[in-house]
Automatic annotation (TrEMBL):
The lineage of its organism: Bacteria, Bacillati, Bacillota, Clostridia, Peptostreptococcales. This is Amidohydrolase. GO terms for molecular function: metal ion binding; N-acetyldiaminopimelate deacetylase activity. Keywords: Hydrolase, Manganese, Metal-binding. GO terms for biological process: diaminopimelate biosynthetic process. The Mn(2+) ion enhances activity. It comes from the Bacteria. It comes from Mogibacterium diversum. Gene3D superfamilies: 3.30.70.360, Zn peptidases. The keyword Manganese applies.
Length: 391
């Protein structure tokens, strides 16, 4: 029996699982019922699994009957703090929490792929590891799995991400940078408070902080090469207690985004230099703290070519399309730092069925018939990579 025929057996299962996880959405690091359900399904299949990384992450292993390589397939499992407004009969029953990024689809596609691979073990070469990873939205899950040995003995990694900007029937698996690196910065500005009518006797932290906001933009315009896409955003600015009192302190927080490892590594130095020097020019001091969230997500050329070929096999020759990189972060990058990998964007947009909203929107949903194709792509990438398919 071919893969298409095997997959057809699980078409209804795919939808049933996706809807269960959508209905039972849980936030990062607290996906307890989600993890329990995943493990129950694996037990039913007779597939071995173990805890790996954070408490709610699960790593399963399927060994083929033939020798070959080892590949890791990843699906993230956490939902977002978003109040759902889809009106779907299986809408999230968890108040203020919704699978608005499609991770419910990733869980169900990977479970369906596990069924397919398990049924086809006699034809499978090597080993497939399947990672249901917690906490992608807060960038703690992937790193924890890597540190706990998820990639031990692994030759490559692969992930499918449903994408609301790509029409159903199409995919994007371009090589090179696909998602941005993300860092967070916090800047504490210290001046000297005083009466609003006597500015000469005070040092205004609001004025210094405002200057820092503007000066930070010169990092992109004057410190980076014009061909380097990058973003510096100040998201919060808090200062002052009263309308006629000069603020003695201010706090700014923000993020930097880029696609280059070189820029990624230089950003903390640039932010600190601009903040401290600008504050000094206004008679203040500035303390800067940097938090690394995720490195850039860069698709390996060989893995991207394989994903493209597999998608053409499953969906059709015209399926692959070019989609520009997005500055949004993705912690699958931690897997791809260690072994060659690819994240494929599976089109799930279909206006006729109401799937016409982007990720993180309160009305985000997907065109469900595409999900069984995603499950087949997971399974076929694993089988073809482990067998050494050349493209």
């Amino acid at each position: 029996m071919g893969m298409k025929e095997v997959a057809e057996k699980y078409s209804d299962y795919q939808v049933e699982m996706r809807r269960w996880f959508h209905n039972n959405a849980e936030v990062s690091e607290k996906e307890y019922e989600t993890a329990k359900k995943i493990r129950e399904e694996l037990d039913k299949m007779g597939v071995e699994w173990e805890h790996c990384g954070l408490e709610t992450s699960t790593l399963a292993t399927i060994k083929g009957a033939k020798p070959g390589k080892t590949v890791l397939l990843r699906g993230d499992i956490d939902a977002l703090s978003v109040t759902e407004e889809t009106g779907l009969p299986f809408a999230s029953k968890t108040k203020g929490v919704m699978h608005a990024c499609g991770h419910d689809c990733h869980i169900s596609m990977l479970l369906t792929a596990a069924h397919i691979l398990n049924d086809m073990k006699d034809e499978l070469c090597g080993t497939v590891k399947l990672a249901w990873q917690s906490s992608e939205e807060v960038a703690t899950g992937a790193k924890a799995m890597v540190e706990d040995g998820a990639l031990d003995g692994v030759d490559a990694c692969f992930a499918v991400h449903v994408w609301g900007n790509v029409p159903a029937g199409h995919i994007s698996c371009d090589a090179g940078p696909r998602m941005g690196a993300a860092r967070m910065f916090e800047i504490d500005v210290q001046g000297n408070s005083g009466h609003g009518a006597q500015p000469d006797l005070a040092v205004d932290a609001i004025v210094a902080g405002s200057a820092i906001v503007g000066s930070l933009q010169t990092i992109v315009s004057r410190k980076l090469a014009p061909a380097e896409p990058a973003v510096v955003t100040v998201g919060t600015f808090n200062a002052g207690e009263r309308w006629n009192v000069i603020a003695g302190s201010a706090k700014l927080t923000g993020t930097t985004r880029c696609f280059s490892y070189d820029v990624f590594n230089k950003f903390p130095e640039y932010v600190e230099q601009v903040a401290t020097d600008t504050a000094k020019a206004y008679g203040c001091t500035a303390e800067v703290r940097d938090t690394l969230l995720v490195p850039p997500t860069v698709n390996d050329e060989g893995m991207s070519a394989l994903a493209r070929a597999v998608a053409q096999d499953i969906i059709g020759e015209e399926a692959p399309i070019h989609v520009p990189p997005t500055a949004g972060g993705e912690d699958f990058a931690y897997f791809m730092e260690k072994v060659p990998g690819c994240v494929l964007l599976l089109g799930v947009a279909d206006e006729a069925s109401g799937a016409c909203y982007v990720q993180h929107h309160s009305k985000f949903t997907v065109y469900e018939p595409e999900l069984i194709r995603g499950a087949q792509i997971y399974a076929k990438v694993a089988m073809d990579f482990n067998a050494g398919r050349e493209v």
